[in-house]
Amino acid sequence: MATTNRSFTYDLDYRNLNLREHPELYRVGKGEMGVLLVQPYKSEILPYWKFKTPDIARQSSEKIFQLFLDYKQKDDFIGMDMARKFLQMGYTRSRRYANHRTGQKYDGPVPDDKKGQSGAHGRQQLPRDEDPVKAESARIFYAKYLEAREDEKYKQLKKEWQQKYG
Fold first, then answer.
1. pTM for this structure?
2. Where is the composition biased (Basic and acidic residues) (predicted)?
């Protein structure tokens, strides 16, 4: 039986699994869980995910939101959810770089037994140094993320998905 972490299954063979063909295997998870795993959506959305400057973030978030709308038109909940996750990840990564110039939030390497997990794992958080350019990129992504998250059809399809698949 597959192990799950807050409902998202990490031990499926995502490199060879097309969740458009096997939608019953998809789990929403929490936040951005699985955003860089679920195919073919990852390959469809990732090329547009960029946040270096506000102009780039605006173009990226608008393109990803358009993909969200395209998936919505096709009643493709997984696509909508994955686009929402990429918008959320645009916000969180922009915020990380806004807070930490190098993108490193914690001091020192991740212990080998903790790789792939979230959290500090006993490491000290590095001091913050606000970058207004990256902060603006984060605001741009956050606005589109909220638009996707609060979309009525998205919420309806998510509820139906969770009732059907758990």
1. 0.82
2. 126-135
